[in-house]
Design goal:
About 60% of the residues lie in helices and about 10% in strands. It is an alpha+beta fold. Helix 2 packs antiparallel against helix 3, helix 5 packs parallel to helix 8 and helix 6 packs parallel to helix 7. The protein is built from eight helices and seven strands, in the order H-H-H-H-H-E-H-E-E-H-E-E-H-E-E. The strands form two sheets. The protein has a five-stranded mixed β-sheet with strand order 2-4-5-7-6. The protein has a two-stranded antiparallel sheet with strand order 1-3.
């Protein structure tokens, strides 16, 4: 049996090799440019179409190189047939893999779209990594949106109730005065005083709602300057002293000499004042509310308000700063309560200062803490 002749590879000159590389690179660039242009025109089409274009470009660039080699007569005969067969099979395999991959990506994308269109949205499992990240992010966004919508409805219902009740009383008193049902000077004076008190309370409520809307809209403008927390504590103490005296609550302060921060004194003073007023309203007579200003162990400026409210249920602590949240424990609103938005406003102001506000149960009451970046020097 005669031996099968071996396939021989002719020697390739350096010039021939450079010519093949140049021609192949040029054809590859032309095909790649055409592929990019096609993908740009199809950028809004299915991902499967784009994957098919990518594979076609890769196969076409390879075929162009092979044709360039054949045209230069570097390979011929059986070798040429082998190369063309390998390239053809490789191209078909690439197209098949691209088709399978594109079909899966399109299918998973449609599964994600179907989940989005059917509320409540729950992120599908088993998606490709990027789509799974998008699905998880969407699930978190929808959860936040539902929570905000629920809070908005609760706020509207609560504000409507708190506005309707005093307005009904004011209308009844105004009609009694207008019709002459009440005529004795003492009762008339009492009605006038009650109407004025309710008007002031409603005005404060409207101011709080306006401030909260500015915070949520990102329209809160701060005029920052270097201030000392000891001065802020002293001003807050002086402003809250009449309310504490009327309630019979002992109001004290402990402030370090130098705790400098970069803050809007008016806005930060309102946040601290809200916490102090809230603490006084929920602390029994003859008990103590303590304000402190210091530098904590982490190097942050810390303002704290400690009261004797009786504590807050642990399950209510994470929701205490939510708008319109009204727990039924130690901080149930009373007749002398405010609009109920003070904690949410305080949180918005503190976060606008790049700080954070927290609350923990502490002894006979709870402790609110405001932490702000400390100014060096």
């Amino acid at each position: 049996m005669a031996p099968v002749p071996a396939l021989t590879q002719p020697a390739v000159a350096v010039g021939e090799l450079a010519m093949v590389v140049a021609v192949t690179a040029g054809l590859g660039l032309l095909i790649a440019s055409a592929g990019v242009a096609v993908m740009w025109r199809l950028r809004t089409r299915s991902i499967g179409v784009m994957l098919a274009v990518v594979v076609v470009v890769a196969v076409a660039a390879t075929l162009a190189g092979v044709v360039a080699i054949i045209m230069r007569m570097i390979i011929a005969g059986a070798v040429k047939d082998f190369v063309l067969s390998v390239v053809t099979v490789g191209g078909l395999v690439g197209l098949g893999v691209a088709f399978v991959l594109a079909k899966r990506v399109v299918g998973e994308s449609r599964r994600l779209v179907a989940a989005v269109r059917e509320p409540p949205f729950v992120a599908p499992k088993g998606l490709p990594a990027e789509l799974q990240t998008i699905a998880n992010t969407l699930e978190e966004a929808y959860a936040r949106e539902r929570a905000l919508e629920g809070a908005r409805r609760e706020l509207v219902a609560w504000v409507s109730h708190d506005l309707r009740t005093p307005l009904a009383g004011m209308r009844a008193m105004a009609e009694a005065l207008e019709d002459g049902v009440v005529s004795d000077p003492e009762t008339v004076a009492r009605y006038h005083g009650q109407i004025k008190q309710e008007v002031e309370r409603l005005s404060a409520m409207v101011d709080d709602l306006f401030e909260l809307s500015r915070i949520h809209a990102g329209a809160l403008r701060l005029s920052r300057a270097r201030i000392g927390l000891a001065d802020l504590v002293a001003d807050t103490l002086a402003g809250a002293e009449p309310l504490a005296r009327a309630k019979g609550v002992v109001l004290t302060a402990e402030a370090a000499d130098v705790v400098p921060v970069e803050a809007d004194a008016g806005a930060l003073g309102r946040a601290l004042g809200n916490l102090v007023v809230n603490a006084i309203r929920h602390t029994p007579s003859d008990r103590t509310v303590v304000l402190r200003a210091r530098v904590d162990d982490t190097g942050m400026a810390c303002l704290s308000v400690t009261d004797c409210c009786g504590g807050i249920p642990e399950e209510d602590l994470p929701r205490l700063f939510e708008v319109a949240f009204r727990g039924e424990a130690a901080r149930t609103p009373t007749a002398d309560g405010g609009a109920g938005l003070g904690l949410a406003i305080a949180q918005g102001i503190v976060e606008a200062h790049d700080g954070r506000i927290e609350v923990v149960n502490d002894g006979p009451g709870c402790r609110f803490e405001i932490r702000l970046p400390l100014v060096a020097g």
